[in-house]
Amino acid sequence: MGMAHFTSGKRGYVMYTNADGHLPIPIENSILYRILTLEDTYRASEEYQDMYSQKDDLSWFRDVTLALQQRALREAGFGVEWGIGVSEKAGLMSLWSARGALAGNPLYNQLTVYQRKDRSREGSLRNGDLAPAVTLYTQNHEPVDFLDYMSQFGDKPVFIIAGSVS
Questions:
Q1: 68: exposed, middle or buried (C-beta count within 10 Å: 0-12, 13-18, 19+)?
Q2: Are 73 and 65 in contact (CB under 8 A)?
Q3: How would DSSP label each residue in 80-94?
């Protein structure tokens, strides 16, 4: 199933801010529930799965995801309660931040496929542990032996940040 995780609320569960540093507009719980329900329905729909399948490109996945989230925001009536239009960017930031604020809420977490299917857990590696022998891949899909790559740094400590782009 297609998805883009940058929109999943898993951004370290911190609030997104707009360009001038203001926090997003709060989303009332009943509207947030409706938005997340719509978004989950759209993600699983044949319409959006067909769109995700058109290209094998992360930028394309992001664009499709943003479009379906904007649709869910509009259809759920976000911003209507104030009698004002909310810009699409402000609405998206509000949605992403609301997810972060509800990170531990099982009711809301079950509304999104990436929370229902999330199997991520804290790893066992700790500061000072030896690096595991694994094969990594460059952006050009070329294999790189991790320990061979690390040997070029000698005894210098190395800080590694890793994550998923799936």
A1: buried
A2: no
A3: GGGTS---HHHHHHH
Nearest to 86 by CA among 35, 14, 12, 11: 35
Place of tokens 């926090």: 23
Give the DSSP H or E segment for 112.
Answer: none
Is the four-CA dihedral 44, 115, 139, 146 of positive or negative sign? negative
Q: Each residue of 74-130: pLDDT tens digit?
A: 898 876 554 455 677 778 878 877 766 666 777 777 776 666 666 666 777 787 887
User: Number of helices (H) and strands (E), helices first, in the chain?
Assistant: 7, 2
Q: Which candidate, 37, 19, 155, places its Cα nearest to that of 87?
A: 19
Q: Record the tokens describing residue 143, joined without a space.
A: 């294999």
